[in-house]
Each structure stands twice: as structure tokens, then as C-alpha cells.
Design goal:
Elements (H helix, E strand, L loop, with lengths): L2 E10 L2 E11 L4 E5 L6 H8 L7 E6 L2 E2 L5 H8 L2 E4 L11 H11 L4 H14 L15 H13 L5 E5 L7 H14 L4 E6 L10 E6 L2 E6 L4 H4 L7
Parallel strand pairs: 3-8, 3-9, 6-7, 7-8
Antiparallel strand pairs: 1-2, 1-4, 4-5, 9-10
This protein binds adenosine-5'-triphosphate.
The site of adenosine-5'-triphosphate (ATP) has 12 residues, from strand 2 and helix 1.
Amino acid sequence: MDLRADGLTVRYGARQVLSGVSCALPPGTQALVLGRSGAGKTTLVKALAGLVRPTEGRVLWDGQDAARLTAAERREQQASFGMVFQTDALFDSMTVLENVMAPLTRRHVPEAEARARASDVLRAVGLADAAGTLPERLSGGMKKRAGIARALAARPSVVLADDPFAGLDPGTARQVARVLLDVSQGGTLLVVATEAPMDLPLPRWLYLRSGRLVHDGPPAPEWEDAPDEVPA
Ligand SMILES: Nc1ncnc2c1ncn2[C@@H]1O[C@H](COP(=O)(O)OP(=O)(O)OP(=O)(O)O)[C@@H](O)[C@H]1O
């Protein structure tokens, strides 16, 4: 999917969280969405996925204004997005395989096909052996990879991962980075983080400061050290 933000502004009450963000994310884009805590990173990816409504400006999906679609059209388009959020939880009472199958069966993919696709993607994230396990028996890193498998089982063309490395040790973070790169091949990958992850050196940085997109281009580590105030 061709994704675009055009003058995107999001306000919560009096609080402006995103201010006039514009960016073009054609199919195959691989980018980091960076910025300090509270800079608006999560809000930006949620708005791109149609989960937060712009107060001003537009989000365009293949050139169509997402806010102008009917609820049914929006749901259909949202099937193109695979999202890994910080707060994602697996269903405790279901096995890892059943968790990964859930989004597919919800979309009426026949059981046998859902099972085969879920098994494939679990293999891709290195969790084939844990398919029959309940989530409570997984380590934090395994849970994270299971969450990624669930987001990817439906073969989304856009993968949005919100801080997928939070709380992971360096070895597990490396594994998760490799999985994200492997499984999103050919599609768009947007990864939110507060610091550029060493293991996932994506070629483009979208750097947010207090809701403004202050840099959109090649990696620019100088922004990570820049003082808080954004010049007017
Ligand atoms: N639903 C909401 N209602 C009110 N304020 C919100 C809401 N969602 C986010 N905010 C506020 O908007 C600001 C930006 O939040 P957002 O989660 O987009 O930032 P972030 O850059 O992803 O931060 P972090 O790295 O800490 O996750 C924060 O100050 C947050 O408190």
C-alpha cells in the first residue's frame, strides 16, 4: 500500500500531539520513526493505520483519504496493516499457534489454511517448537516474537512495530530485528523506537520532536543529541 500523511495534525483536547506532519511512504519503505517519549511516534503510526482520526490534514491510502471511506471499506483496507503494539497481549488460554491463527480465522480463512500459514510464520520467527505452548510459559522475547508472528500471519503489506525492542535483552532484540526484516521483505516496515536500534539500521529516519517531523531522510544521529527545543 502507498501510504501518505498530508499536513497531519492530531489534538487531544487542548493538547496538540502531531503538528502538520507530511510524509510519503511508498510500498517497500523501510523507516525508523524516532523521537523522545511523548514526541508523538505512536500517534503517527496509529493515524497512518487509521486508528486515530486526524484533527486536520489527511492520511492517504493508495491515494484515498482514509477518513472518507465507509467503515466497511476502512476495515477492508486495514487488513493490509500488521501492527505490533507495546501493549499487545497474547490470549492466555490459547496456545501460541491458536493465537497466531486468531486473526486469520476472524477473517474467515479456512481452518486448515490458517493453521498452515500460522505454522509457517511461527517457523519464520523461530517459534515452531513453541506452537503448542501456552503464552505464560514463554519468555518476554518469545512473547514478542509470537506477537510479531500474529501481526504477520495475514501477510500485511505494511508492518508497523511500536517499540518492539522495549524490555528485551540485546540478544533477543537482535533476533526480533532479524525477524522483522525477514518477514517484511518487499512490504513497508515502520519501526518506532526512542533510540535508533543498532540491530535494525533502516535507511530512512522520520524524526519527531514535540509532534513535528523535524527530519525525514537518511539516518541523522545528530538529532538524537540535539537539545529539546525545536527552533520556531
Ligand atoms: N488518547 C489520548 N488522549 C490524550 N492524550 C494522549 C492520547 N494518546 C497519547 N496522548 C498524549 O500524546 C503525546 C504523544 O503520545 P505518543 O504515544 O504518540 O508519543 P510517543 O512518542 O509514542 O511516546 P512513547 O515513546 O513514550 O511511547 C503524549 O504526551 C501522550 O500523553
